[in-house]
Design brief:
heterodimer, A: about 180 residues, mainly alpha, Four Helix Bundle (Hemerythrin (Met), subunit A), B: about 100 residues, 3 helices, about 0% strand
């Protein structure tokens, strides 16, 4: 329970840091802290495979992609937050989100489900158990993820396709 | 063992913080990171319930969430970079040019 409280505080501090930080780089680093504490929490919940997948996919691939784009777009700029166009939208959104969060958390904590007496299966959450499920009855999800990733890759290629220049090259020689 | 209620409560708090980030911030990169946090909160709830019911289907769903988040980040960052190359401002209102 102590470990859970420490990890929960770390995760919440990381989450608040993402929202509060001025620079996107700081947000990304706070998000790394949040993700790593959640990965350790997955270990405590006996989801070993997902803890490792979380570290590899989130903290490895996704955060590197984020940091790459952040350094590409905001290098050397001190840009403040743009001005809000909608009047009072921030306050209404913040109050509503805090209310929803408190309500959900109170409901979750005050209504415990039934406990299960039987022990965990011996391969619960490790590579063996996940492999038996993913390559057995739940193969549909692996196929869906594969299809989704291929679609995303093709979409990125289509979005960033090189622009063809029809106009002739500017003639430097005449200007000089 | 950690009681499942507390973990689901933590997931709810993380989800709400992510929602605040999406709605309050205007930098599309930070909004995206907050959306990632909301995905993570959902995955945490799935894993907590999988542990509680001793059934690994929840962990399969969390795996699906991780894969979806990877695909989403790729396509979303591509959109952000494309919009930035056209407008040279990091403001989420610039993306409203994608209408029509």
């Amino acid at each position: 329970m102590t470990a859970f409280i420490i990890l929960a505080i770390l995760a919440i501090v990381g989450a608040l840091g993402v929202v509060v930080a001025r620079q996107p780089v700081h947000s990304a680093l706070f998000l790394v802290a949040n993700i790593l504490s959640l990965a350790i929490l997955y270990l405590l919940l006996s989801a070993e495979f997902l803890a490792v997948a979380q570290v590899i996919v989130y903290a490895g691939a996704i955060m590197v992609l984020f940091l790459f784009v952040v350094t590409l777009l905001t290098a050397g700029k001190e840009e403040g937050e743009p001005k809000e166009q909608l009047e009072g939208q921030r306050w209404i959104a913040g109050v509503l989100a805090v209310g929803v969060g408190i309500a959900l958390a109170v409901l979750a904590i005050h209504h415990p489900g039934r406990a299960i007496a039987s022990g965990l299966p011996h391969n619960f959450g490790n590579l063996h158990g996940m492999g038996l499920l993913l390559w057995g009855p739940d193969f549909l999800y692996v196929g869906a993820i594969a299809l989704m990733l291929v679609t995303a890759a093709i979409g990125v290629l289509v979005l960033n396709r090189p622009v063809r220049r029809q106009a002739p090259r500017p003639q430097r020689r005449n200007e000089a | 063992m950690i009681p499942v209620n507390w973990v689901v409560g933590l997931a709810a708090i993380l989800f709400a913080i992510g929602a605040i980030g999406v709605m309050v911030r205007r930098n599309p990169l930070i909004m995206f990171m907050s959306a990632e946090m909301m995905w993570n909160a959902a995955a945490l709830a799935f894993i907590a319930f999988a542990r509680h019911w001793h059934d690994m289907s929840g962990q399969v769903m969390a795996f699906l969430i991780v894969g979806t988040a990877a695909a989403e980040v790729g396509i979303g960052l591509a959109i952000i970079v494309t919009v930035y190359h056209r407008r040279h401002r990091l403001d989420v209102d610039e993306i409203s040019g994608m209408k029509n």
